[in-house]
Design a protein that fits this description.
The chain has helices at 16-39, 62-70, 102-107, 141-148, 223-226, 229-242, 264-268, 273-295, 309-323, 329-345, 355-366, 372-380, 385-403; strands at residues 75-78, 91-94, 114-117, 121-126, 129-138, 156-159, 163-165, 178-180, 183-187, 191-196, 202-207, 212-215, 249-252. The chain is of the alpha/beta class. The chain folds into two domains: 41-262, Rossmann fold, CATH 3.40.50; 309-403, no CATH class. The strands form four sheets. The chain has a seven-stranded mixed beta sheet. A two-stranded antiparallel ribbon has the order 4-5. Strands 6-9 form a two-stranded antiparallel ribbon. Helix 10 runs antiparallel to helix 12 and helix 12 (372-380) packs antiparallel against helix 13 (385-403).
Length: 407
């Protein structure tokens, strides 16, 4: 058979390097999607102009976080909605908005030391900068009282109509900068007044066990108020009053919709489960490499029924093997070998009764070691496969020597 007649191997549809690149790109894309999906809530910037510690607008509290850190007081933003920050904070600051459910605020009371900052302003988004807001109006006092009702049912609040500094009745703390429409607590049977202004209004109140504090006006600590140096000093003093211990000041963002709730997917990428996730990824990579190296290209299936004499012989041999009649084939193989030798030597005209004797005499003259008269009884008496193989080997050798086909 010439080289031209050999079947040519079809060219692969894709280059192996292209396939490898596609697999690596798919694995990277899937991994990146899972990681980003797990940490998507943590990646939100919070620049929506709302009243929370991620906001840099006038009603936000990002400035207080920076101020406290600059003064050496650890402060951070807690996104664990409704949960307990770790490490345990010295105080957790809640900054609810007008739309906040009072029950959500009450759920935080069991976490430990908290400071609830009463909201004040109604705002609209700034069309030129979505991170800033424009002042629209003040919240109705009825809305504020409903927000604080779980803690103080008979709370009374008041709001001034002018814009003037708030003079704190607190030793060593000067008057704040100008505060527009300062709002204060007036009466509440289950709250203690902690800090008052010189006009008698309560700016900072607390429950009897000193676990929950309430700040009446957000302009005392928000970004707009901290624009004044005096207000910034007063804000630092107020935070120092409500802290318990040396832990950080945690500003909650979950109450404002920027929480990062726990999930199984995020847990898989967080210590100590991160190690197990990496081990599973490594095991999957090793399995893929092993499969690619071990199996290679798929083998084409052959015909269920092959063509040709070889297939017919294989099927016949399979039937004989299944019937366990291999030793019975020794006699047939003897007859076949005898016929081939007779045809090769031209002894077909001899008397069949004297044929074996004739072949023995010819074997003796030719120096053949085996004799047909000896092999014939062994072939007829074969009972096992071992006997069959022994007789077949001897008959094959006898035929090769008698016909001169030495192989």
């Amino acid at each position: 058979m010439t080289d031209a007649a050999l079947p040519s191997r079809p060219a692969p549809t894709f280059s192996p390097m292209v396939v490898l690149g596609m697999v690596l790109a798919a694995v990277f894309s899937a991994s990146a999607f899972l990681v980003l999906s797990a940490y998507a809530p943590d990646l939100r910037s919070g620049s929506d102009g709302g009243p929370h510690a991620l906001s840099k607008s006038a009603v936000g509290y990002a400035g207080l976080v920076r101020l406290l850190n600059a003064e050496g007081v650890p402060a951070d933003v807690n996104r664990d909605a409704g949960g307990q920050a770790y490490p345990k904070p010295s105080v957790e600051v809640l900054t609810p908005g007008a739309e906040t459910d009072p029950k959500d605020v009450a759920d935080y009371a069991s976490n430990g030391q908290i400071l609830v900052v009463a909201p004040k302003w109604l705002t609209t988004p700034d069309p030129l900068n979505p991170a800033f807001v424009n002042k629209a109006d003040v919240l109705p006092l009825k809305t504020l009282l409903g927000l604080l009702k779980p803690f103080a049912a008979n709370l009374v609040m008041a709001r001034r109509t002018d814009e003037a500094p708030a003079r704190l009745d607190l030793a060593g703390v000067p008057a704040t900068g100008s505060v527009d429409q300062l709002q204060t607590f007036q009466t509440a049977s289950n709250l203690d007044a902690i800090v008052r202004d010189t006009r008698g209004g309560v700016l900072l109140a607390a429950t009897h066990d000193r676990r929950v504090y309430f700040l009446s006006d957000p302009d005392l600590i928000n970004n707009h108020g901290l624009a004044s140096l005096d207000t910034a000093r007063a804000a630092s003093a107020l935070i120092a009053i409500v802290r318990r211990g040396g832990g950080p000041v945690a500003f909650d963002a979950g109450l404002n919709g920027f929480g990062a709730p726990r999930s199984l997917l995020k847990l898989a990428f967080s210590p100590p489960f991160l190690g197990a996730t990496l081990c599973l990824a490594g095991a999957g990579l090793l399995i893929a490499l092993c499969a690619a190296v071990t199996f290679g290209a798929p083998r084409r299936e052959g015909r269920a029924l092959a063509f040709g004499k070889a297939a017919l012989a294989d099927n016949s041999a399979g039937l004989i093997r299944m019937a366990r009649r291999e030793p019975r084939m020794a006699g047939r193989y003897l007859d076949l070998s005898r016929a081939q030798v007779v045809k090769a030597l031209g002894a077909g005209r001899a008397d069949p009764k004297d044929l074996d004797a004739l072949l023995d005499r010819m074997a003796e003259r030719g120096g053949v070691a085996q004799r047909l008269s000896t092999l014939a009884p062994e072939a007829r008496n074969a009972r096992t496969n071992a006997d069959l193989m022994k007789v077949a080997k001897a008959l094959y050798q006898w035929r090769m020597e008698m016909t001169g086909e030495h192989r």
